[in-house]
Design a protein that fits this description.
mainly alpha; 3 helices; 68% helix
């Protein structure tokens, strides 16, 4: 038996690194329009969002540690 081909082609998500970083930054700040959020869901790759998000959180933690050591 032949495998059935899906009626729709696989979803191609093409999002730039800058758009991904901007989406993660706005999400960390908590300011995001619903329409822009919807566009990000359609255009950005979820794996890229996770990678950039983890890197952003890492930078935030390191920045806070450096700030505390500088103040103390």
């Amino acid at each position: 038996m032949k495998m059935q081909e899906s009626a729709q082609p696989p979803l191609q998500r093409k999002g730039s690194l800058g758009r991904t970083v901007r989406a993660v930054a706005w999400s960390l700040v908590g300011l995001r329009k619903g329409s822009e959020y919807q566009q990000d869901i359609e255009k950005l790759n979820p794996l890229h969002l996770i990678a950039v998000g983890l890197f952003a959180v890492f930078l935030l933690v390191v920045g806070l540690i450096v700030l505390v050591k500088w103040v103390v």
